[in-house]
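Re: the 659-residue chain
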Amino acid sequence: MFEIKAKDNMGRVGVLKTKHGNVKTPALMPVIHPRKQAIDVGKYGAEIVITNAYLIYKDEELKQKAIDEGLHKLINFDGPVMTDSGSFQLSVYGDVEITNSEVIEFQELIKTDIGTSLDIPTAPFVDRQKAEDDLQITLNRAKEAVEFKKENGIEMLLNSVVQGSTFPDLREKCARELSKLDADLYPIGAVVPLMESYHYKDLVDVVMNSVRELSDSVPRHLMGAGHPMIFALCVAMGCDLFDSAAYILYAEDDRLLTTRGTYKLENLQEMPCSCEVCTRYTPDDLRAMPKKQRRDLIAQHNLHVSFAELRLIRQAIYEGSLMELVEERCRAHPALLDAVRQLGSYSQDLERYDPRSKKSAFFYTGPESLTRPEVLRHLQKLREMPKKRDLIVLPPTKKPYSKFISGKLGEFYSYGEEHEIDLENSDFMVLDVPFGLIPLEIDEVYPLSQSAAPKIRDVDAIEFLEDFVMEFSEYYDQVLIHSRITNDLDLGLYNKCIDSPDIRYTKDDTRKIKAIADYQFGVGAGEALFSGNINIEKSKKTGKIRHIYDGKVLLVNMRASDAFLVLSKEGAKRLHNRMDYPKNRVVVNKDSEPFALDGKSVFCKFVVDCDDSIRSNDEVLIVNEEDELLAYGKALLGACEIKELQTGQAIKTRKGMGK
């Protein structure tokens, strides 16, 4: 029903399958009024729409036509249609003249593709008792709807809406309980007042605390979200579907949507984009038109902008630059900047979904970039890596640093226990934004080398470097910090200046590949993989390591784009023999064993378990339930998704051990 095709952060490009066709997500569902349809939204890019089943139910003429001819003919749309149950009317008027089971039965009768139970939308910032009471009714009705669907053989897909007002724990509770009911989609409801009042920071809390308890195997729908300026942020939080009547409501009021906000026609001297409407007409042309013609053209512009933004977001997911887009979009308004900063407090949640390696480089766009999953992941890895007695900290050079650091290194300031420096017992690291300390042995690994930051550092970046150096210094007996760093940072921890011509960095390829293996697969992987008569083959053109052998037996290849190690058959055996279960492993059931041995790819539904630390694009071992090595390959999803999804490919197998 839902399959993930690409991912970045918590954002995903997916395919939602319905009876009336497939929908590529993230997607916008324009709201279609059953009696006031203004323009053909399908003509401008809509693959799915939403309309209100309750409004149809209350209008005898529309009701009969929908029953006789079907919903799709009624609203003149051939693609998938979602229907709301009347919850919006319930929130506005306090009551509706239909029961939960009646609205489910009616939605099935008119052949909607995706129906909705009659939840209780609880406004933001209400008192807790009301939120709890409403939540219990919503849960009871969701359970009733799922049971009614099963008992009556209803074929339509079913929405179960997450409520809980602005109480994070109630949002979590609602999402957790709904996930047990086996619904098909999970909308996050009652957020329109937050967006209308620019409470985007609170929106982040509502969405993140809902999504963290929802299954990864189903689409999440942010109800009422229709302004393109927030799409990127919401997709990064895991939202797949949006709906709104903003495109036509704003047009009625002569307002044009853009990714930078909303423009009033009366204030425009230039058209705001390059869509067909904006290139064909001037603001004066629109102002001179009859109201209906002007409204329809502005609505077309609003749809163009919205669908163009979703295309841009999907492309950003494919190339791994979603967070750069989020940080760019959130500078359109101070309240959005608050939101992206609040999202940084959920870095641990985001990291579980973020791919290990991406096609796009990491661009530092401001202090918000310091809370991205890639930074958090590197700092965690760095703390776990084996350490020598002393630390030598160097200033950044051109990347990769290890290629351009050589000869006498200059003056250093000393901190900690004073003793003669033993270079063989010292870690050499570069201090740079945004990853803090970068060991020279692993400096080519993604994203440490594939990153860029401004030369002029902002205050937050300087404080980040100062704090991290002071924290990390505790791991070492003595720390030598280059004088160029102490001139720029207020570290307050050095004792004296040392100018020693003996402090030099000597490259060691064997040490390098072992460090990369430890960083990639876990501590101990370097020794496991690279024992024996190690032979390192480099590219004649670039000088980079390409293949690593034990004698003439290939162990690993080093991928040129990100310096990660790609296992060979022998490399997989060595890693499996030395790394404890379940490290680096994906466990498949007995049905999948012969296919894995034969080198066939592994699908999610055949996975029994996997190492929780696996992320998308990791190199993994494929084993059976007795931990016998069957194959090795590349993870296409993170561990949390592999465990939950029942459709789609989990591992792209490189080779089966039976071949």
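The radius of gyration is 28 Å.
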